[in-house]
């Protein structure tokens, strides 16, 4: 008893402390621990969700990167095949046009040759006629004084026929 | 300074001691904290909320690690013991806390201190010890059932050896009252005495002891809370 008195143990004080602590624990649980715990849980949930979103975004980004690479590879392949095909087409077109140009130029040359031949013949004929005319005129001038009118005519006819013959032979050759 | 707290006045037969006043101050601090936090709790915490969150989360995590699914029952006891004891001890470290005198009819000219650390009163520490042990045993009965609970103390397995072990377990429960209450009471009361003596010799000489007492205050709060947690976990485990 003396010991209890010395330490100041008193039933009222003891009960006061017990009841006080039980009230405090009840109030703190309701007004402090629960709101804090709920908030911590909510924050944890948000952080977890954010991390999950970040992981998903990372996966989506990686997938998009792979998709992009795939599309670029396919595009490159298409472009290469298109270039090859265009090259072949160009080569074919070039050859076609070259052939056509060759044929066309040959035709033009041929036509020009023919035209030149016709022109040459026509010019030769004109030259022949002119030379016959000139020869006739020279002969008639030369023989006008030496021969009678009849002889002149005979000689002229003979000479002309010879000239004509010679000229035709030249043309024919 | 006497071991028993000083009675300031009585209200309808209830003796209001300086430790009761300190207990009420501790209550007010805790309740203001709770209401402020409840009103201002947010996902982006301020410094104060961060500090409270840190304490609650630390003890919750620790209890969860130790006790697993029983955490929701155990951690409010653990955190409340820690907060109550820590604040009660720390408030008493404020210089001049015990210097404010109160004059009673029986006190002399000097009067008695108006405030005294709540945990330097054996009534408080014994109350905490009783609450801790009773809550521990209640949790044990709730989790393992009354039959398994009784078998922890009374068992005839192994030719009566377990009966002896059960008796030791039973004695252990009573020893807990003493160990819990006297450890806390002794540490805080002795600390106060040391500080009072040092203040008496040379006030500046008390500074290192204030720092030491600050540490003791926190350590004792942690020890009480952790022991409660450990005992609650052990008691709620089925006997082998």
Describe the protein in words.
The complex is a heterodimer of chains A (173) and B (240). Chain A has helices at 2-7, 11-143, 149-172. Chain A has 173 residues and is an all-alpha fold. The termini of chain A are far apart. Chain B is globular. Chain B is mostly helical. Chain B is built from six helices and four strands, in the order ββαααββααα. In chain B, α1 crosses α3 (71-93). The longest helix of chain B is centred in the C-terminal third of the chain and has 41 residues, at 161-201. Helix content of chain B is 70%, strand content 5%. The model of chain B has no long low-confidence stretch (mean pLDDT 88). Chains A and B meet through α1 and α2 of A and β2, α1, α2, α3 and α4 of B.
Output the keywords.
heterodimer, A: 173 residues, mainly alpha, B: 240 residues, 4 strands
Oligomer: heterodimer
Number of beta strands of chain A: 0
Structural class of chain A: mainly alpha
Order of helices and strands of chain A: HHH
Following the backbone from N to C, one meets helices and strands of chain B in this order, namely EEHHHEEHHH
The two chains with the largest interface, and their residue counts, are: A-B, 32 and 44 residues
Helicity level of chain A: over 70%
Major sheet summary line of chain A: none
């Amino acid at each position: 008893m003396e010991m209890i008195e010395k330490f100041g143990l008193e039933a009222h004080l003891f009960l006061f402390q017990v009841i006080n602590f039980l009230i405090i624990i009840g109030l703190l649980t309701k007004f402090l621990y629960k709101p804090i715990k709920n908030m911590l849980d909510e924050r944890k949930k948000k952080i977890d969700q954010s991390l999950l979103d970040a992981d998903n975004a990372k996966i989506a980004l990686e997938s998009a990167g792979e998709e992009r690479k795939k599309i670029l590879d396919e595009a490159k392949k298409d472009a290469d095949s298109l270039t090859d095909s265009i090259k072949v087409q160009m080569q074919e077109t070039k050859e076609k046009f070259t052939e056509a140009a060759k044929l066309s130029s040959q035709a033009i040359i041929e036509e020009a040759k023919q035209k030149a031949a016709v022109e040459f013949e026509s010019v030769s004929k004109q030259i022949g006629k002119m030379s016959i005319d000139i020869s006739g005129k020279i002969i008639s001038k030369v023989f006008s004084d030496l021969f009678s009118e009849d002889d002149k005519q005979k000689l002229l006819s003979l000479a002309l026929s010879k000239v004509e013959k010679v000229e035709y032979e030249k043309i024919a050759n | 300074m006497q071991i028993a707290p000083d009675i300031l006045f009585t209200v309808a037969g209830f003796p209001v001691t300086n430790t009761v006043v300190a207990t009420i101050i501790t209550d007010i601090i805790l309740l203001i904290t709770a209401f402020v936090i409840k009103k201002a709790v947010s996902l982006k915490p301020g410094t104060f909320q961060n500090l409270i969150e840190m304490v609650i989360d630390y003890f919750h995590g620790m209890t969860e690690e130790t006790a697993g699914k029983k955490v929701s029952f155990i951690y409010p006891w653990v955190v409340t013991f820690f907060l109550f004891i820590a604040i009660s001890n720390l408030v008493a470290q404020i210089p001049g806390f015990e210097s404010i005198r109160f004059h009673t009819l029986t006190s002399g000219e000097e009067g008695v201190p108006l405030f005294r650390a709540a945990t330097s009163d054996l009534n408080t520490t014994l109350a905490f010890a009783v609450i801790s042990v009773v809550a521990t045993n209640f949790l044990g009965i709730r989790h393992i059932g009354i039959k398994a609970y009784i078998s922890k103390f009374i068992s005839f397995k192994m030719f009566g050896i377990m009966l002896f072990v059960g008796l030791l377990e039973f004695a252990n429960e009573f020893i807990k009252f003493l160990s819990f209450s006297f450890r806390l009471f002794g540490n805080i009361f002795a600390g106060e005495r040391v500080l009072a003596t040092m203040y008496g010799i040379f006030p500046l000489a008390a500074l290192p002891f204030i720092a030491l007492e600050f540490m003791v205050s926190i350590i004792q709060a942690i020890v009480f809370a952790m022991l409660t947690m450990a005992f609650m976990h052990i008691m709620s485990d089925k006997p082998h």
